[in-house]
Amino acid sequence: MKKLNVAMIGGGFMGKAHALAYAAMPMFFWPAPAIPVRKIVVDVTEAMAADASDRFGFEEASTDWRAVVERRDIDVVDICTPNNSHAEIAIAAARAGKHIICEKPLARTGDEARSMYEAVKGGTSIHMVAFNYRRTPAVALARKLIDEDRIGEILNFRGTYLQDWSADPDAPLSWRFQKDIAGSGTVGDIGTHVIDFARYLVGEFAAVSAVTKTHIHERPKQAGGVDKLGVGGDRNAERGKVDVDDEMLTMIRFRNGAIGSIEATRNGWGRNNFLTFEVHGTKGSLAFNYERRDELQVMFKDDAADARGFRTVYTGPAQPYGEGLWPIPALGIGYGETKIIECYDFFQAITTGEQPSPNFEDGWRISMIADAILKSGKTGEWVELE
Ligand code: SOE
Question: What local confidence, expressed as pLDDT, does residue 232 receive?
Fold first, then answer.
């Protein structure tokens, strides 16, 4: 069976999720499209790179991503770094003819994302953006039911992504609160996951009208750049400026006539990974909550009048990706499995030569929508998308 050598740039939280996927993908999906070989991991210091390589099972470690992406024995470059380095690494990897998977959001701004898309357009690289949540079987099932016209023409999409890891004003100033590194706050970090759902399930955006707000303007600086996601740090440390949004709400007009809304915050006490959508169509409705990720709520207008209301479908062998996952629905999946499925689809794309979705073009379009939301949040006007 074909083997593909992976160079993973970044050995933090996302590196862990991707390494798990490389190890497990062939265990779940067999025959695998190709076997991922965890060849080399790159991190900021030699000690961090060595730790990542021991822990995540890579053969080698390095601190020099530039040399690594040029290596002839590397097939896949996997970008798991903070947002400000995505473009430089991806463009170098595209020039070296590598296949590329990049963590979301693709870039800090629409323009930066466009330069990444231009670098891969027309070339031989297979490219993917890691919006893994659309690969939750229940979400893929929603798309299948929509494609099969089971809920008719879509009228409305209502999505949320609510977390609370940044609600504490003493939570450390991670890079996710700094515009020059992250690009934006909640809009880019988690709002883009819901934008991805909305495009996947409903279609292209025509215009947005948004409100954005920064609730906490200063936070304790943290020692080192490691992402602490709201924990640790020294609450008495000198404070630094937060220059990104903490919360966003947007109305949406879709090109196909549907309307919708998205709300996202990382300051909603009590909400952990409350990533949801509800889609209303002319023949039925679908609802999903990632905190109950094995379930899709469905309602079809032809349901018997005395049994009307949402019912729960548990995803398992009968639904998308079911052949590779656990054999009984309620055995359930977790965050790791969404990354395993993502890895499977990416390797499948490399093997067939057909670009997967979401790819860098989708990542660029999502970044343009994020820019439009931020612009509308500033001006208070509707912003049309080209
Ligand atoms: C922090 O908000 C974060 O780690 C996001 O960056 C991820 O994309 C999301 O999956 C979990 O939360």
Answer: 80
CATH of segment(s) 136-358+364-384: 3.30.360.10
**SS3 label, residue 186:** helix
14, 16, 132, 189: residue to mutate for ligand 1 pocket, most atoms within 8 A of CB: 189
Which residue, judged by its Cα, is nearest atom 6 of ligand 1? Answer: 189
pLDDT score recorded for residue 225: 65
Q: What is the pTM of this model?
A: 0.98
Domain 3-133, what fold? Answer: Rossmann fold (3.40.50)
Q: Which amino acid belongs to residue 362?
A: D
- Omega into 26 within 30° of 0, i.e. cis? no
Alpha-carbon distances of 40 from 46, 58, 101, 208, rounded to whole Å: 13, 5, 15, 42
- Per-residue pLDDT, 166: 95
Question: Which sequence spans correspond to the domains of the chain?
Answer: 3-133, 136-358+364-384
pLDDT at 222: 85
Which parts of the chain have pLDDT scores under 70?
Answer: 225
How many C-beta atoms surround the C-beta of residue 133 within 10 A? 23
Question: Among residues 188, 192, 171, which one has the least CA distance to residue 179?
Answer: 188
Ligand 1 centre distance from Cα of residue 67 (Å): 29
